[in-house]
Amino acid sequence: MKRPREAAADVPDADGLTVLHRVRASSKLVPWHVAAVTCIAACPDGSVFAAGYDDGKVEVFDGALFNCLARIPGSDGSEISSIAWARAPRDAHWRLFASTLDGSLLELSCQQLQPIAATDSFGGAIWCMRPAPAAAGVVTQLAAACGDGSVKLFAVHGAVAGAEYVKSLPRVEGNVLALAWHPDGRSIVSGGSDGCIHCWDVQRGTERQRITVGTSSAVPPCVWSLTVLRDGTIVSGDGDGAVQFWDGRFGTLLARHQQFAADVLALAASPDGASVWASGVDPRVALFHLVPDKATGAPHWVFLDRKQPHTHDVRSLTPLLRPDSDPLLLSGGNDGQLVLYSLERFLKEHPTRQSKSPQRPLLQLAAGLAPARLLHVQGRTLSLWQLGRAVRSQALAGGDAAGAAKHFEGDHWDLAALPSQLASITTRSSSHIAAAALSPDGSAVAAADRGRLRLFRLVAAAAAADVTAYSAETGMPTQWTLKNHSALAELLQQLPGSIQGLSFRPTPAEPLSLLVHSAGGLCHIDMAAGLSLHKPDTKQPRTKRNAALSKPEACSELGRNGRLLKLQHSCLLLGHTSASEALLLEKPWAEQLQTLLPPLYRHRYGT
């Protein structure tokens, strides 16, 4: 990777090259624990969506660019079961609520990154929570399915944090695991471990009808998921792997599809009610569509197709209705991935992952000393590492006729010392760490959770696809940015995924050398030189290659400003460790899948 020459570099560097420490991080050096996605909820205005995880954290994403806007850390022993958006008439913005399996209903602040109010369910674990249908941009009711067999109703008031308990619907046998509102907002359907669907009148608090889901099994299947379509049709997913369509008025079975080998945990419907998606322990996402019968013309439900972007259980499906863009379908599950599908072109387009490296741990470099130090934070644990020191390989130690050592791009460098762990700190609080920072000299660490800010000192015993440079004096974009904006925008659009980090070269004399990285690639930009447009090679190789970097460019492209390199594995961190060295941390996604519980076993023919 070419950079401007410097007379005195940390590593002998007569040809202006940067030594890249490329670490395919082991679980010991950089532990990366990916939590399961338990629920997804899209804001009714389509601007953002939120995802809840089984480690108690909640992430909020932009609905257009899909980058993470806020991460609200969780705590030990708290698992998010559902999230919902609500808004009272006097509220200026939509408010985010979450329910947990310990029986709490929380209001979360995306500005303070913590819960600002908590309400007890008075019914044990909350397995499911759903907001009432939005009317004129207002949602003031939340319904919670509780472990004591009841459905609790809560009210949301303007300018008052939290939700207020209103009433409880009569209890039924077993746990209530799923619920859904009727589009008119006057009735609720619930299902649970008793194998029945209960239809409730919200105003009167009475049960209007009861539907038995099981057909022939001695033990009734659990009803894991429910949704109600615009015409009142009730759709259920159960423990037998069946998706069933019921007449909402009479409770009769309209259609039954057995497309899954295990429990159906999630359902989603299109706004017009003509399409339904389902998934669960069998991680295939199936599409059912309402079509007219060829003989009679009467509409009936048919199975169309399925896709399987997930490797493990899918636990949530939800539509994202964006005002100025095509609607999307979102899915998430035990593999920790958020996947996006086109709602209207589900059969024609492939799904895409929101990120190649979801739920990245907090990583920060201290380049003020040699060798550099790396801070790793995840959960309640902070780990401080000292990186290795690079030396020129003995096989390349020769020089030219004048005796000067020659350096070429791609030359291998050895490690004179391996990375070593300096400290590992686990906080006593049950709250997970929300933010942390490492001092420039690597001797002090600051960490903050919901309750307090901590400072630790080491004592020796022996982050859209855009980059803009602003002037510190005027606060306006620099002349380089204005001149190269078009070329820079086109360059960064070629970078796989959204930008996750920037790193300037740590030299006061020449601070204009910048490294930009996403989860799937990196780019070097020299702001002291012009940026020219470069069209990438769109030809696909005939065979798959296992090389971690993309195919090497032609020699004429070596050192070109704005050169882009694509990565095979997920990039967790890229940053300068000195004026002439940089660190690249990669993690194979297959390594993360091995840490999860095994998915549903499906026998393959011939094995």
TrEMBL record:
The keyword Heme does not apply. WD repeats lie at residues 169-210. Keywords: WD repeat. The keyword Isomerase does not apply. SUPFAM superfamilies: Tricorn protease domain 2 (SSF69322), WD40 repeat-like (SSF50978). PANTHER family: WD REPEAT-CONTAINING PROTEIN PCN (PTHR45086:SF1). This is Anaphase-promoting complex subunit 4 WD40 domain-containing protein.
